[in-house]
Amino acid sequence: MTLPPLSSHSISRRDFIKLCAALLVTVPLTRCRGGNPLDGEFEGRVLIIGAGAAGLTAGHLLGQRNVEFQIMEAAATYGGRIKRASGFVDFPIPLGGEWLHVAADELDTIVNDRDVEVTTQLKAYRSEDSAGFFDGELSIGPLGEYSDLKFVGATWLDFFDEYIVPTSASRIRFNTEIVSVDYSGDTIVLTDSSGSVHEADRVIVTAPLRVLQEEAIRFSPPLPADKRSALAEAYAWGGMKVFIEFSEQFYPTFLMFPDSETERGQRLYYDAAYGQNSSTNVLGLFSVGTAAEPYQAHTGDQLRDYIVAELDEVFDGAASRSYVRHIAQDWSKEPFIGQAYLFDNSDSRIPRELWEPIDNRVFFAGEAYTRHDDWGGVHDAARAARDAVARILS
């Protein structure tokens, strides 16, 4: 799929946020500290396609309201793009979603239970932390204001494991790839890849954007024209993350390049051990879009050599001298996912149209399917799920 030009008809998310910053206002977001129990009831069965952040959140919220539900997951495990590596070093490595991009009380909102104290630790970056910029020559200065929060001794998946998954664990059906959704009758009929049929009164689709674009799930009747148009216009960034352990820390908190943030992609190196109770030195690499492609062209030792050579140029051979090992996750090659997240500069109309339910019977939720002017993050997927459940209960 070719990356579309920026829309001239609608403001992009990045421009919207920059505009808000220039006007000294904040982006309006749905907030509810401690959780706001959803009103309404629903008597019927809900099937959720996908056990990623949105699917798990939807199941958790439905379970709180004693609504019958089941989650149909194509893979053998839950989590989707909040994958974790537990044995690489002495703290969990977030191979997918890593930071919380909004205020810490968002975790309370996701849990949605005032009686539950969320003890997940988060750490803010300090303005005096170091930020490097390399353009043939390395310059290092203070980071300045940076709002993302880092999980400490945990990842997004650990948070879901502790607070969200227990509500849904017994209701997840693994290795069940849904290939068709027929909502033409009074009952919605889902068919999986083995030919088994599953019936529901409501369906929440949380499969990644690429899955719908490749028509891995067929809809009958076909999706409405506006939704098909939004799918055709949407661009799902491919993405790759790499974590490299070194015997010494020779790098700043963040390292950026001239192409670290462009309309076509993003990449940066960062101190992955920041804030952790650890003596290990782990440098993370985040890359999406065209900026990820040079790394995705390599695997194994070739990927190691490519990254070490890149860092050696910046840090005068320090990477070669102190390399220990690395681990990588290429989301473009992950079965049933095949992507990172929705292109940052997408027209804001696209995620809103993708979120819109069909006949108040087939609902959509995920980082790319949201009615808010924010997308691409784990919290966005959870918010979209909350909105879908609220609509079902209304």
Helix content: 25-40%
Q: Main beta sheet: strand number and arrangement?
A: 7 strands, mixed
CATH architecture: 3-Layer(bba) Sandwich
Number of helices: 12
Count of strand segments? 23
| Helix vs. strand class | alpha/beta
Mean pLDDT: 91
**CATH fold topology:** FAD/NAD(P)-binding domain
Domains (count): 1
From the spread of the alpha carbons, the general shape counts as: globular
Intertermini distance? 38 Å
Please give the radius of gyration in angstroms: 21 Å
CATH superfamily, please? FAD/NAD(P)-binding domain
Strand content: 15-25%
The low-confidence parts are 1-34
Which strand order spans the largest sheet, edge to edge or round the barrel? 8-7-18-19-20-17-21
